[in-house]
Design a protein that fits this description.
6-stranded antiparallel beta sheet, 13 helices, about 25% strand, 6-stranded mixed beta sheet, single chain, Pdz3 Domain, 2-enoyl-CoA Hydratase, Chain A, domain 1, alpha+beta
Length: about 525
């Protein structure tokens, strides 16, 4: 098929009136246009051009505008003028990598570790609609297994690694089959040679493909609880994501304490604007906590890489004290061009708490964090700090105080039919809490350090160092000096999660789909 993209779109027809509102895409011609920058003769050329224009020139008219001065990239002013059609960049991903290198702050290190292209469109489907492995914008996928795994070092010398299940979504094939946190995978499709051999090693690649890029898999597992060997045959499927892996209520020092494990910020409202499965789950959870009369809450975000901004707002509103009602929840920070045109573009400068918060009266909210706690997770806890006692237990968070506005990039074939290219996730905004605290690109340091032991079941006050430390604080008023020696027993309960995870393509970030709709 002859797919070509006309670059000089604004010389054809007229610029739509009121360019700050939604404009129809122009120039559906299949002809080739040569400019001083070069000639776009392929979909990849089109993608490079549209991505560059959307980030650096203007998002207007689907990134085709060359005159409207509304770049969307947060660090656009740092990026020098580049030729997106240069042969230097074989793909749009290569061009994006080059652009990200200029995202420097006060130092010389690039801050943008985050921007990327989603060429299937599957991310927006899972985050917005809460359906894993559903139809993408380019093809029908066959779902996934619904679990996350990690390698764990078996000895102090880090010479031996074991592969463990970190968690499984309750509704997924893995969760429904009975796989759970702390199960050790000893063979995949009958192959026991699965030890970690580097991020791109033969074994690691083999394991990644079997667990995350296939439609079926057989596993041999040593169960965490019984230590017996079990076999599982999984078939990838679509399912409604349940972001709450576990929840319970404790009585500690005479008071009720709520606890839940939250692994992804799937949106509380779908792309059609109706309540999502995630909202249903969270509504029931907080109703239960409120009925129990909890006075402390523990939110476990150790594996949560973020997601939808609307869900962060939901959690903040549910957790915040009554005194926060109607006050600033957080501020948006955009580049100077968008900031100067907030009213015309329709962007918000800040977001407030609702007139009535969730009705909990908490003495403390504890967040369990790790290097996998990112973006919307960090935003949630940061937003609460000006209004209540927020305690972090675990390890330093990932460090992503910024987020995405999604832009869908398309070109047209020789008949004028629109062809989907990719969804662009390039950093478009940052956030600060009501005290103007943000900028935590190096992560947020915990109040108390605690290790993550793979054998500790969800909710274990004795096996999970994070929960043990919080229980100690609630009982004595201070955290224990050290618990590492007590828990390092040599069993799976004493094996720390190493952070040597697979390339599972799990999303880490913060997306505001509402803004994307406003800018279309």
């Amino acid at each position: 098929m002859n797919k070509r993209f006309t670059l000089a779109v604004l010389t054809v027809g007229t610029l739509c009136a009121g360019f700050f509102t939604a404009c129809k895409k122009e120039s559906k011609s299949g002809s080739t246009t040569t400019t001083t920058s070069g000639t776009a003769t392929s979909d990849e050329d089109s993608l490079k051009y549209l991505m560059y224009n959307t980030m650096q020139v203007s998002y207007v008219n689907g990134g085709r505008s060359t005159t409207t001065d509304l770049p969307t990239y947060y660090w656009y002013s740092n990026v020098p003028t580049m030729n997106p059609l240069s042969s230097t960049y074989s793909t749009a991903d290569d061009l994006l990598t080059a652009m990200k290198a200029y995202s420097v702050g006060t130092g010389s290190t690039a801050l943008d570790r985050y921007s990327f292209l989603d060429r299937t469109g599957s991310l927006s489907t899972s985050l917005q609609d809460g359906v894993s492995g559903s139809l993408t914008k380019v093809s029908a996928t066959s779902g996934d297994f619904g679990m996350e795994v990690s390698y764990v070092y078996a000895d102090a010398n880090k010479s031996t690694t074991y592969l463990y299940v970190l968690y499984a979504d309750k509704n997924s094939p893995a969760g429904q089959a009975g796989l759970e946190r702390g199960d050790r995978i000893t063979a995949i499709n009958g192959d026991t040679d699965i030890a970690y051999d580097g991020s791109s090693g033969t074994n690691t690649t083999k394991v990644t493909n079997a667990l995350f890029n296939s439609t079926s898999v057989s596993l041999t597992v040593t169960k965490n609880t019984s230590k017996v060997t079990a076999s599982y045959s999984l078939t990838a499927a679509t399912y409604n994501i349940n972001p709450v892996l576990f929840d319970t209520t404790y009585t500690i020092n005479g008071s009720k304490v709520g606890y839940f494990v939250f692994y992804t910020f799937t949106s509380t409202y779908t792309s059609k604007g109706v309540a999502s499965p995630t909202k249903t789950v969270l509504d029931a959870l907080f109703t239960k906590f409120k009925a129990a009369g909890i006075t402390n809450l523990i939110v476990d975000l150790r594996y949560n890489g973020g997601g939808s901004v609307t869900t962060a707002e939901y959690l903040d509103s549910a957790i915040a004290p009554a005194s926060a009602a109607g006050k600033t929840m957080y501020y948006y920070l955009y580049n100077d061009k968008l900031t100067a045109n907030l009213d015309q573009v329709g962007l918000e400068a800040s977001v407030n708490f609702p007139a009535t918060t969730g009705g909990l009266a908490l003495d403390n909210v504890f967040f369990i964090t790790s290097g996998n706690t990112a973006s919307a997770s960090e935003m949630t806890l940061n937003n609460l700090k000006p209004y209540m006692n927020v305690q972090l237990v675990g390890t330093t968070t990932y460090g992503k105080p910024c987020g995405f506005i999604t832009f869908t990039l398309s070109d047209y074939d020789s008949t004028g039919k629109e062809q989907y290219l990719a969804d662009l996730y390039a950093i478009n905004f940052a956030t600060e809490n009501a005290s103007h605290t943000g900028g935590y690109y190096s992560g947020i340091t915990p109040t108390d350090s605690a290790a993550d032991y793979i054998g500790a079941r969800w909710g274990s006050l004795t096996g999970d160092e994070n929960l043990y430390n919080i229980q100690t604080y609630l009982t004595t008023g201070s955290y224990p000096a050290s618990t590492g020696g007590r828990l390092a027993t040599g069993s799976s309960e004493g094996l720390r999660v190493s952070g040597t995870s697979l390339n599972t393509k799990k999303f880490s970030g913060m997306v505001d789909y509402r803004i994307g709709k406003k800018l279309k």
